Amino acid sequence: xxxxxxxxxxxxxxxxxxxxxxxxxxxxxxxxxxxxxxxxxxxxxxxxxxxxxxxxxxxxxxxxxxxxxxxxxxxxxxxxxxxxxxxxxxxxxxxxxxxxxxxxxxxxxxxxxxxxxxxxxxxxxxxxxxxxxxxxxxxxxxxxxxxxxxxxxxxxxxxxxxxxxxxxxxxxxxxxxxxxxxxxxxxxxxxxxxxxxxxxxxxxxxxxxxxxxxxxxxxxxxxxxxxxxxxxxxxxxxxxxxxxxxxxxxxxxxxxxxxxxxxxxxxxxxxxxxxxxxxxxxxxxxxxxxxxxxxxxxxxxxxxxxxxxxxxxxxxxxxxxxxxxxxxxxxxxxxxxxxxxxxxxxxxxxxxxxxxxxxxxxxxxxxxxxxxxxxxxxxxxxxxxxxxxxxxxxxxxxxxxxxxxxxxxxxxxxxxxxxxxxxxxxxxxxxxxxxxxxxxxxxxxxxxxxxxxxxxxxxxxxxxxxxxxxxxxxxxxxxxxxxxxxxxxxxxxxxxxxxxxxxxxxxxxxxxxxxxxxxxxxxxxxxxxxxxxxxxxxxxxxxxxxxxxxxxxxxxxxxxxxxxxxxxxxxxxxxxxxxxxxxxxxxxxxxxxxxxxxxxxxxxxxxxxxxxxxxxxxxxxxxxxxxxxxxxxxxxxxxxxxxxxxxxxxxxxx
Length: 654
Hints:
By secondary structure, the chain is of the alpha+beta class. The protein has two domains: 25-396, no CATH class; 530-654, Immunoglobulin-like (Sandwich). It contains 23 helices and 15 strands. The protein has helices at 3-6, 23-40, 51-61, 64-69, 79-92, 97-123, 126-137, 152-174, 177-191, 200-213, 217-222, 224-247, 249-253, 262-270, 275-278, 281-286, 291-313, 319-335, 338-342, 352-369, 376-413, 453-460, 498-502; strands spanning 419-423, 426-431, 443-444, 466-470, 482-486, 507-514, 517-525, 535-536, 541-549, 555-564, 572-579, 582-586, 606-614, 624-631, 648-650. The strands form three sheets. An eight-stranded mixed β-sheet has the order 4-1-6-7-13-10-9-8, covered by helices on one side. Strands 12-11-14-15 form a four-stranded antiparallel β-sheet, with no helix packed on it. Strands 3-2-5 form a three-stranded antiparallel β-sheet, with helices on one face. α3 (51-61) crosses α5 (79-92) and α14 (262-270) crosses α17 (291-313).
């Protein structure tokens, strides 16, 4: 049975009316959904972050019509993708994170399905179709696009381009005019979604010329009438987009070529085409080899392997994947700065369709060509390409989990009327072990080019009165085997002027490491007195304390209201989570995370501070209590209570 027959629309009595969805479609769709959910399902619990903040501010301030007649203050022309995000605001009244993430994840799975269908049309092999779909979904450099709401425009372009090429190919083999018209429609959707979508017409042209008309110039000449009929409207759509874009002032400013950076950009972006080989770049750099030579060496080796295998297998039609890849990366390589490109693995998402196609065809071709135990080479290549991509994506989603957790705590602690100082909020995290020689392999949540409180607005719907970010390196929170960059690292926060800085704010938040997890704690300036039954220390400090355990029975929050009626030395508080006499967790340290110690407090100064401890799963919750006291960090001597003793024990409320 040929690929054309399987992919045609046929009459039948099914739930689709007169449309019968062939089994290959259903199988691929189900597999694409499962794999996408496995890799990116956790994205549904992530906040809106990074550039999304700037983009959605602009979207909120504009109308739907503005996106088609201007750059909406963003410097680029993306009318359809911006319209999608505006529709979310119009429907919900705000930007809902979960539905917006769901759209990206679902569309990525749909694009993987289309990738499989297109591979079937090329090779008419179910295994190759499955593998191409999986390689697209698990392409390692796509880890940035799927969880990042506004970079979902790249997914929209990829899905539209795949649909357009599939429809135009279907028209070529079936002469069904609806397929041709729908193909033009999807070319328009891709083109007006993102500037990189202008390549959709070239992708369609390369597919029809190589796969259907034939690779040779003579074969293309024989099919020139059909090629012209299919592609002339596509070219007109691309020309219309370019004309509108260049007619806009900011569009003109962003349309220049960066000839001096093309070589570097191509080197970085080409890593993705031969990623099964270039994954060794991190090892070479770790061994002392400079990054660029390491990348170039592996790229050349990878291209030699790829082209050599295509020659060995005589799978020349699979060259369409190579052509697809390079067409897709050209706009980024020629128009963007190298600094932008190196931080933008998302720029390879559209190109990943080509990489997935060519490696799937190679693996399938090896299976057909080899016999016996030698077929393990085909299985190994497929398993390595798919498995390594899945591992890369999953480990990056683990980084998202760490950042998302602390950012949700930040959002929850913020208030509309607060003037907040946030210390040591992680802005970016990456593993110390590199995989590729070039590029950013981490996850960033907060930029320094927009107000931090705008992130609160996008995710919670209100804007705090004031929000300042500072980094205090001497107690910077770290996680094992990672590099972490803190928000506010470029702003001075010298210990000598911290008291003056703290005096401007009514709320202080800080991030600390507990075990191998981040936790955000906070303190509010208060004029209230501790309760009459509060705890009194002989040194003049007064304390009222309470503790609660979260519904998930994992986090214990301890609220401490401190007040002093006289100067106090530099003391630290100890908080022990105990079961009987056994300490199962502790949160020792100065008040306010060390930002503003007791010895810096004014008379009658008062703060309500919350500290957090993680309760181990192995300990029964019924026996847990909190033990609280003060000690001198230099000598270790504990401060006595007025009532006698050196500590108090309080119960934990559910």
